[in-house]
Amino acid sequence: MMRATTLALAVLLALSAGAATAAEPDPELGPLTTRLQSIDLDPALAPYAAYERLQARNALAAATKAKRRDRAHAITLARLRVESAELAVSAERAREQ
Fold first, then answer.
1. 7-30 pLDDT, tens per residue?
2. DSSP SS3 for 88
3. Verdict on whether the full-model pTM lies above 0.85
4. CA triplet 77, 82, 84: central angle to 5 degrees?
5. What is each CA distance from 46 to 34, 54, 73, 84, 94, in whole angstroms?
6. Is the alpha carbon torsion for 60, 62, 68, 69 positive or negative?
7. With contact defined as beta carbons under 8 Å apart, do 36 and 56 qualify?
8. What b/e string do you get for 39-58 counting C-beta neighbours within 10 Å, with b at 16 or more?
9. pLDDT at residue 97, rounded to an integer
């Protein structure tokens, strides 16, 4: 009985530690996500570059799920996609004015 209780407690601690780790923002992807969200949440910018913003969101999601060996490449791709979205928003906005 004591062994089962100890095992259950160990499993609960491991799960709670994993949940706490998953809730921490990624130091490399956090700023990129913030940059993309600032475009999405700005009503003046939201209508522009929808496709490029979608590509950036997909790249950020892929980087979040990337395995360790693919992580550097996925982060670089996400950074480029976010920059591309920012440039496309600027270009479309300038073209309209």
1. 444 444 455 555 444 556 789 999
2. helix
3. no
4. 90
5. 14, 12, 28, 15, 14
6. negative
7. yes
8. beeeeebeebbeebbebbbe
9. 87
